[in-house]
Amino acid sequence: MSSICRFRGRSWPTLNLSYSLSFSVNIESGCSNPPEFSFEPQRPSSSVAHTHELASHIRGDLPIPDKIFEHGQKFGSYRRGDSTFYSLIEHHASSGDFRSLEMVFELMKREKRTFIEKNFIFVFRAYGRAHLPLEAVVLFDRMVDEFQCRPTVRSFNSVLNVVIQEGLYQRALEFYSCVINSKTYISPNVLTFNLVIKALCKAEKVSKASEVFRDMPLLRCVPDVYTYCTLMDGLCKEDRIDDAVALLDEMQVEGCYPSAATFNVLINGLCKRGDLTRAGNLVENMFLKGCTPNEVTYNTLIHGLCLKGKLDKAFSLLAQMLSNKHIPNDVTFGTIINGFVKQGRAVDGMHVLKAMEERGYKVNEYAYSTLISGFFKEGKSEDASKLWKQMIEQGCKPNTVVFSALIDGLCREGKPYEAEIFLYQMIDFGCMPNAFTYSSLMRGFFEVGNHDKAIFVWKEMAQKDFMDNEVCYSVLIHGLCKHGNLKHALMIWKQFLAKGFTPDVVAYSSMIHGLCAAGSVKQGLNLFNEMLCKAPNSKPDVVTYNILLTALCKQGSISHAIDLLTDMLNQGCDPDTTTCNIFLTYLKEKFDPLQDGREFLDELVIRLHKRQRIVGASKVIEVMLKTFLYPKESTWEMVIVELCKPKKILAAIEKCWAQLFL
């Protein structure tokens, strides 16, 4: 049924479904009195189809074409108002239809309509959702000259936020400087400074952010809790924890009360540094300030405890978290499971996983991948296989991480052919293998002696245009050098460097081993020196030094090997059992090997002790005891006193006496 809506002497054809539309149009006409409606049955006219179309457009079923305005003018049933255009701008901005937005803007300019700032803020936000920050900047520049709309700090902050959200921190800072230094007369407010400080901190210009923070009061702008929190986070990430904690005291003196988020930033910084004592004190301070620890606080503390290896305390804190009715998330459980696995306690990690399931938590694939990898590393392949089956039965879809963990574990067990089957299953599952997946498979075939198959995996990866990186090259070079294929290893090495990759310590050590094994010790030393000078991020480890020490001792250059050992100590690298055995083996050629070996290692202990490397010294003493080369009494006492601090000894004695007394 159609009807005629009469209001103020004018008629608008309408339908029952569009009464609200007719009402809104009459309001836009500027009438102050409430409208009066009267309905008379009428034969459907040609304008009814137009009304149907307009109603569909308003509901969002169809895009709004410009011809609707033309039809409205012809039959006199519709008069455009500024608010109608504003509604269209909001509609197109919400849908991300920037082409239609430009058409509306052009039509408004032709009809000399008034532009308001709210229109542009809608569009700026739409550009942000569409990840088009530079278009937002361009539109901001057009506001005054093209649309005669003077921007305020609201639109300025909106554009600034869009640019920062896209990670264009330097561009955001340039935009800020350009606008503030221009004649727009925009005065920044606290939100502006918060955004600028955030951009500076993200751009690793924390000192500059501190300067901006100190200048805020001079511009009659008082920092709020978000200002302090943002700057604290930047300071913590630069490991300036003390400066960040000092800000906590300062903000309270200034009358700005910290929130839970403020404390969480500082607690996270202290936990990452390993200062759990101060982190615990901050938690107590939270309660004093009326801030209750939330899920983020607990997760941060649990993560910090796991990093320090205090898993039992982390587990008890988890129980406290649950008792306080805080809901742990996947990160909480995953952190504890990962902590247990790192300590070789995958079984305990499995208990945590079962506890999750009993409490109704859905275990994600990352927890499974951590445990599967942990079981394989501990030599418990059956437990890893059972867990894989359990994951499938639970309906947890494996991803690339889980498949890669399984493939790596099977290769560690010497089962690369089974691992290859899972690789094809992985691809069928829609999970793309990564560099870790292929490097594990190549390493597995090298370990079982199938060099051709390992190289075939390498070529297959290259043909399928999968990612090849330093890890894959390192595995390939290591495998070729280990099995004496130095010629092909050198070819891969040149290809590696030509692609612009930087060799890691594994690649360098493998090439040095290959050269030394082929009798080219001098070339191996040259490559070692290149490693020291040209690859600061690939610092030689004890394996690298042991390779060269073995080669030098084999060719009888004991003095050169001792000099290299001195360089090793100066570089901060402690000797291990292999290092000690290398020298003991080649010192047997002396007239009195027992005496020479004992004196050599005893002197090595003293040298490590002088450098305050007590752990390294104790490892050398362990080697001496196993080989019946007892250290001197003075050396023994010196190391034991350092290992057993007086406070720890007294605490142990007091605990023992207390137990006896009870």
UniProtKB/TrEMBL annotation:
Pfam families, per the entry: PPR, PPR_1, PPR_2
Taxonomy, superkingdom: Eukaryota
Repeat positions for PPR: 189-223, 224-258, 259-293, 294-328, 329-363, 364-398, 399-433, 434-468, 469-503, 504-534, 541-575
UniProt KW Repeat keyword: yes
Keywords per UniProt: Repeat
Similarity annotation: Belongs to the PPR family. P subfamily.
NCBIfam families: PPR
Protein name, per record: Pentatricopeptide repeat-containing protein
